[in-house]
What does this fold into?
Amino acid sequence: MKEFVLITGLSGAGKSQAAGILEDMGFFCVDNLPPELLDGFMELVMAAEGKYDRVALVSDIRGRRDIGGLAEHIRQLRQTRPLQVLFLEASEQVIVNRYKETRHRHPLDPRGGDLSGAIRKEMAALAPLRELADHVVDTSGLNWASLKMKLSSFFPAEDTDSVFLHVCSFGFKNGIPAGADLVMDVRFLPNPFYVEELKNQTGLDAPVRDYVCASPATGEFLEKLMDMLTFLLPKYRAEGKTGLLLAIGCTGGRHRSVVVAELLTEQLRALGCPADCVHRELR
It folds into this structure.
């Protein structure tokens, strides 16, 4: 069974990041596909037996000529094709800030004179697409790990029988990651920040890892955390959960939480539990 996902939404809302995440999940991804080529491309994929079983396509306002009719075209395609629509959006101020950071030009504001007006114009143009979307995600407060967790829950692998655990280290001084399902505080562990030769290293460096692991509390905490997860994950799966975001925090998010997140992920994988690990403050 082929799986098609059309990624669309507002410019600056994270469509490229979403495509990258789906690619990591095994999707074949095509960016900036003109709407008029959508039908023909899907025909080619359907004809390729045994190949391209999961396909994600990005189509948005960059294909301005036909974006207005894309919603109706999708309705027609859905009569014969398994097409899901993922719509990404963000608040106007967040999009403005992102464009200021990247210094890119909005597709509807090529001369850079009225960014807010271009965003509002795009919102209106894409409103029909948003209405028929299977999944609408506001990325205003989401980081990469949170977005990945959401997409994993929307588009799980067909053969999955486990909850995919996304482990994210973070620093409490920068706030708890948006969308976290479980939050663990490891600020009780000895802090390498106060050791001069370790201060400028991170939890990915062996000396910091050795320092944190030298505390008996580290091993005891991991043992109890694994016991809890062993109990919880089957319960979540029974309720239909396919992905969870476990956030592990220390003060700055560069030492203790990184070590614990890495150790936990290693233990989970050793037991055959699907898991990945990201470090928010090290990105």
Remarks:
- Residues 216-238 form the longest helix (23 residues).
- The chain has two domains: 3-140, 164-282.
- The chain has a mean pLDDT of 88.
